[in-house]
Amino acid sequence: MPRIRYLKPEFFSDEDLAELAFQTRIAYAGLWCYADKEGRMEDRPKFLKAMIFPYDEVDIEKELQMLSEPKVSNGVPFIIRYELDNLKLIEIVSWHKHQNPHHTEKDSIFPPAPPFNKDKDKDKDHQGCSELSNVHVTVKRRLKKTEGYNCPLFNDFWEHYPKKIGKGKAFEEWNKITVKKDEFLIKTMIKVIDQFKTTEQWQKDGGQYIPNPATWLHQKRWDDEIKVEDKKSW
To answer: I want to staple 67 with a disulfide (CB 3.0 to 4.6 A). Which of 78, 143, 162, 171 is the partner?
Structure first.
């Protein structure tokens, strides 16, 4: 579904875009209209060609490939193309730097792309599960509900958190705040979550007052104090 997006004046003077062909620049702007709230969409070249270039003979696959190549200035691509169990996806890099989707827009149903790593010789075993070394990534099997996008520590958090909503957004927040995390931090989180599960606030009305997991992580709610009177007596 097409959406209304911002086009800043800087788009026309961007030196990295200036290195690309005219139709590649149009393709890039066109992708914004078909990206979801997090800048993601299905990688469907024929569909995107029909939507963005209905009257022109353009090789959209070539344009997408050009956009996924590293920029001249910093080595980071405009888009990341990745695959999840035969579902090909695109994520626009630096999406929130250029776009501010309306708050009522539906959350993304697609998992985030692996962050792009310019230095392919860098150690790939990073804490936080936030670094991969290739733009074109294929996930061989669909992630199960509790796998947490192949990050064991996030998996533990997700398994213990009682409100299973917005997993992709929660994973993004996880990577933002836990780059240097260790097992002690995850144990602290789980301990606090288990304590909150006993409070009247989290048990009231079927748990509707439990914060979304992404919100809980973003606000570092594991540092909150639990008042004695809030704990439910049995």
So the answer is: 78
